[in-house]
Amino acid sequence: MTKSSMKLKLKVPDTYVLLFLIILVAALASWLLPAGEFQRAENAAGRLTIIPGTYHNITQTPVMPFDTLIAVEKGLINAASTVFFVFISYASLMIIIASGAIHAGISRMLQMTRDKYRIFIIPIFVFLFAFAGGTYGMFEEALSFTPIFVGLAIALGYDAVTGMAIVAMGVGLGYSGSFTNPFNVGIAQQFAELPLFSGIAYRLFCWFVMCMTSIALIMHYATKVKRNPQSSAVYGIECGDFGLDQSHLANLEMTGRHKLILLTGGATIVIMVISVLKWGWYLDELAGLLLGMGILCGFIAGWGPDKIAKTMAAGFKDIAYGAMMIGIARGILIILQQGNIVDTVINGMFIPLSTMPKWLAGIGMLFVQTLINFFIPSGSGQAATTMPIMAPLSDLLGISRQVAILAFQFGDGLSNILWPTAFAAVFCGVANIPYAKWMKWFIPRFCIIFCIQAALIVIAIMIDYR
User: Fold this and answer.
1) In angstroms, rounded to a whole number, what is the distance separating the alpha carbons of residues 315 and 432?
2) Cα within 13 Å of Cα(274), Cβ side
């Protein structure tokens, strides 16, 4: 028997299986960890915030086996607005994709650039996604763009991981380095009683440093894959039907209809930015806007109502695997909440910080916020939960509250594409990349960026960033 035949082939479980295993672990934790909670009070904005120093044990509420199964359905209901936003936005974008407008746009881009310069498409779009994440808080919306960039990356001779990384790392680092994002920095500064979007100069610096790091990591990997396709993290794995033929793309003609469709899509993005920042729109309104965009683009393409409906139905089918992950992952949080162990975990993480020197406490805050994002992936929810503790704790440690907010936004952003309870598994589902393969590729790069974030925290402490 040869050595190769003796090797065991380890089959990575499906992402749904991994998520359900985490649900089982969470249910087991509800039996092993003590139940506890903080007292909460309503602030001036009407939000419930934690009162520091009020953590206390309560009656144990372990989650029963049948309740564990029910949590999956409850998670889907709890995350319904996000789940259906992903369905609608993706199906609407599918109309633009099916019209051929995006392919024609990519063709024009390829015609305008020589082959050796095409790798610079990576930094251009990473910056665009990071800007959207850092200004008006794009995240869920980026899921719809993932198949396009997976296809573009494959057409350019890279792979699906490169395409997903452009989108996911772009919005993830944009969220991490947010400078005017109302959903994480804006809310966190309200809880910390700081002027809205104050300290923007250093946040812009952090945003730029993290973007450049991300671009360097993606371009290095993409170059390696182009030189040797076998070095791809997903080599030999079928990543869906997103692959585009570069020779075919190079000869596509951009018609007047294509231009009008792309113009409509671009105008929709501008309206999205304005509506979020100026009018306070969120998922419901944005879903309606994108639905209208999809229908209008269908008519511009010359389609009738039946073809528009069938194309959207095909989009619903394609995105179902990824969108349903959001609800299943939310089931993990339902279990933790039913077991009343979320506050227990948070309290246990915060206690050691009070004994550390300033610079180490700052890094500790980053580490804690990154872990908490596993349990509370919502930026606004995490701000409401942790900032009432972080703000006074930073005062006691002699650290600026701006540093506490930096630790929060760093921990909240990039780990959204690390933890399965956030959006990592969803991005993988949309891109048809096995979650385990993404984790194997992303974890080393996440560690590099985490170290850079820690250095930025230490620098902020050294310069007394306020």
Assistant:
1) 14
2) 7
